């Protein structure tokens, strides 16, 4: 009887699993694709911005970006194949609903929650944001030793090692390699915060459609969500381009939504939004063509100027 070596078969299967992890999902960027099924990718590989025609699948990704390298091979793609696959599929379905014939009808809980989760994920899943999370976690460990010492005094039993030994062990694991292998888990948690998701779900939502006669088209980037300083204020909002002439808007109340609507009627509104989208981008900006090359050149960060991050609330 011919036998299959299951271990070899499993290894072969693992090699075939995709590790191209998109931090800007294909279902989203393809809305900027032209007749050639490509979009314009702006980037600054060196000193100047270079536009290139790219297929949506060929941009906005890193190999193994969300791999959990501390786990066995068969478990390393859990975040990509589980959480992010579900997040992107729900968001794709929600986008189809919002731009389809049922746009004015109430969305299902799955779609509305899925879109909110997607917005959160797009603020967390880019490469530099993941590195920022690692830096923040590494700062927390030494800062927490004081409170841990006091707690250890209360629970220490006879024969337990001195706190100095415990602290040394904790600090020995507080290194970049240790946390970098787990950074996708930090991203997953930050992308699914119940409080923020609940707030987004209950904001006023609308879709703005801009007239084709307007000279400028909307750009997007690897950090596409434009948000006010937090979401807890009356005038707080979140915006996201959905295509060259389409934009998602969330506001805390109808008054704030009305103000955004009035501003959107101005001929400079798209330029203002584009400036923010390009300025906050990490390294990639997208458009339908290269006609906004000078604009992107003027506003895309230099290579030696890393993006500034803060917590979102």
Key features of this structure:
2 domains, 313 residues, four-stranded antiparallel β-sheet
What would your notes on this structure say?
The protein has 313 residues and is an alpha+beta fold. It has 2 domains: 19-124 and 194-299, no CATH class; 126-190, no CATH class. The protein has 13 helices and 10 strands. The chain has a 4-stranded antiparallel sheet with strand order 3-2-10-6, with helices on one face. Helix 3 (78-98) crosses helix 4, helix 4 (109-122) crosses helix 10 and helix 5 (127-143) crosses helix 9 (183-190).
How much of the sequence lies in strands comes to 5-15%
SSE class = alpha+beta
The ordered string of helix (H) and strand (E) elements is HEHEEEHHHHHHHHEEEEEHHEH
Number of strands: 10
Number of domains: 2
Largest sheet, in brief, is: 4 strands, antiparallel
**Overall mean pLDDT:** 89
Q: Any idea what the shape is?
A: globular
Note the total helix count: 13
Taking pLDDT < 50 over at least 5 consecutive residues as the criterion, the unreliable ranges are 1-6
The strand line-up of the biggest sheet is 3-2-10-6
Secondary structure: helix percent: 40-55%
Quick summary:
The chain is of the alpha+beta class. It has helices spanning about 5-15, 25-30, 80-100, 110-120, 125-145, 145-155, 165-170, 175-180, 185-190, 195-200, 255-265, 270-280, 295-300; strands at about 20, 40-45, 50-55, 60-65, 205-210, 220, 225, 235-245, 245-250, 285.
What are the SSEs and their pairings?
Blueprint: H1 6-16, E1 20-22, H2 26-29, E2 39-43, E3 50-54, E4 61-63, H3 78-98, H4 109-122, H5 127-143, H6 145-155, H7 163-172, H8 176-180, H9 183-190, H10 194-201, E5 204-209, E6 220-221, E7 225-227, E8 237-243, E9 246-251, H11 254-264, H12 269-280, E10 284-287, H13 293-299
Antiparallel strand pairs: 1-4, 2-3, 2-10, 5-9, 6-10, 7-8, 8-9
Helix pairs in contact: 3-4, 4-10, 5-9
